[in-house]
Structures are given as structure tokens and as C-alpha cells.
Amino acid sequence: MFSLIIPYRNRRELLPRTLRSVVRSSVRPARIYLVDNGSTDASAQVCRDFAAAHPDFPFELLSEPTLGASRARNRALQRVETEWVYFFDSDDELSPDYFQAVQEALAQHPETEMVACATRMVFGDGHEQVRAVQHSASVAHQILSGQLATQGMFVRTALLRRVGGWNEALPKWNDWELGVRLLREKPVVLWLPGAFHRIYQHPASITGTKFAGTLPSLLPALEHVAVCVEHDGEARTALAARAIILAGQLKRQGSAAEARQLLQWTEDKALFPKNMLRRSFLSFLSVYTTLGGRGAWRLALYLLQREKKA
């Protein structure tokens, strides 16, 4: 049995799409927690009306006035009594066959502690793209690609509580950081084939559509991950590469000051390797990204894989 948690804040226009996708699911959660996170519009009323119109679904309406999606998620997590828990965002669409796929996979692999999947991103111009994943349980892969996103993690409740739940200090990249903490526990991870859900990219989403101007919100996540991987050489190299690539993205988007700040942070954290060849490669990643190159994380992953074989 599993619980579904959906936090929301000022999503009056988008919530009906998400909620309709939930009730279309072929497998029903034991409990569906809808957590109002300080909405100032009619979002809470939308949820009340929807729950009243679907009395056969186990909706439970909660409120968390302190702002922060992670705070709202943890508010519901405190009430979860099921073995498994899954989180979804209030502006996306759940695949109707997702829970069925998870259920069938767990029946075949009962030792699993986390079920992971790729998701399908929908951009503002209408085109769609499956999020790239490595189908691995590597901390370094999570750092480089963020393959474990909020909607891509179906987790044993005990495991999530063991790592401390969602980090309420992080305004952005909280699922990226949570993925690192979960994988550091070395859980048994099962990847589903294919891609699920429709994850909409828009300026009002938690992630947003660009990095420029967001460094103050991203640095806390980088800081926490730096502490997590303090004694993991491979993960530290991956974090250096991730920061270098982000600096290139910031510079390309016109935020050179933030790029310099991030590069200085990388130096201050002693993430830059001493090996000159490796430093040169990381510098290349920054220039490559600044000039519009895509997929720099794949190049960094190639470097890590080569070093592992050496």
C-alpha cells in the first residue's frame, strides 16, 4: 500500500488537470494528501470541491502555512502510515498506468527500496522530451544529471524517514539533494522501463525555465551536497563538474557575476581537482556550455567512467 502527497500553492488554474490525472489512475493510493502551502487564491477551494465530487477516493486535505514545498511535503509525510510514499507536483499530469507498473515491478522484486523512472518534460512551445537517466544507483550520476526528480522516486517510507525527509532549508533543487541522500544509503533501486507523466516546464514552476538570477536559491542545495559527499572523491569530482557546467549556463544567460561567484565557491570548497589535466577538462566544460554546447554532463560522466576503469 502507498500514499500520494501533492503540495500546492496558488495553482487554481492548474490543479484540476493534476487531480483529474490522479483519479484516472488504474491503481488507487491508500491515501491522497493534498497540502495547501499558504495559497492566496482559490486553490484550497478547488481541492475541497474536487474531493467532494469524488467521495470514493481517499483524499485528505491538509494545510501548511509556512511556505516551502519541502515543508508541505514533510507535513503530510508525518501522517503517512503506508509502507510506500510517492510525491507529485500540482502542475503536472500523472500517467494512468504508473502505479500499476510500480505494483507489478514490486511483485517481481520485493527486495526493492526505491522504484525510479524517467519522466516526460513538456515545454512552453509544446514539444516534449524524455528526461535523460542513467538507470543507475550512483551518487555521482545523480549529481551530474539529477536523474532522480520528485516524480521519479517511489520510496519506502522508512527509507525516506531514515534520511530525514525533505530538506526544508532548500528553496530549489530539493529533489536533487534528496536523491543524493537517498542513494548514499545504498538502497536497492529498481528502474522502470520507458517514461511516465507529463512534467510541464513554465516560469511559475518551482524549477523555473532559466538559471540566471537563481544562484542564491541554488547555492544552499550545492552546499548541502558538498557536505554529503565530503569523503567521496568520485562524487566530489561530479559536484565540481556540475558547478562548472552551471557557471557556464549562468554566463550564457547573461549572469556573469553569478558565474564568477559560483566558480569562487567551487574553489573555496576545494572541489577543483589538483590534477592539471582534469582541471583543464572542467574548464573546457564551462567554455563549451557558455558557447551553447549541450549535454556537458555527459562529457563529465565519460571522464568519471574513464577514471574508474583506469
Description:
The protein is an alpha/beta fold and 310 residues long. It folds into two domains: 2-200, Spore Coat Polysaccharide Biosynthesis Protein SpsA, Chain A (Alpha-Beta Complex), CATH 3.90.550; 215-309. It has helices spanning 15-23, 43-53, 69-77, 98-108, 139-145, 157-162, 174-184, 215-228, 233-252, 256-268, 276-290, 296-309; strands spanning 2-8, 31-36, 59-63, 84-87, 114-122, 128-130, 153-156, 189-200. Strands 1, 2, 3, 4, 5, 6, 7 and 8 form an eight-stranded mixed sheet that branches. Helix 5 (139-145) runs parallel beside helix 9 (233-252). The longest helix has 20 residues, at 233-252. The chain starts with a strand and ends with a helix.
Which characteristics define this entry?
single chain; 310 residues; alpha/beta; Spore Coat Polysaccharide Biosynthesis Protein SpsA, Chain A; eight-stranded mixed sheet; 8 strands
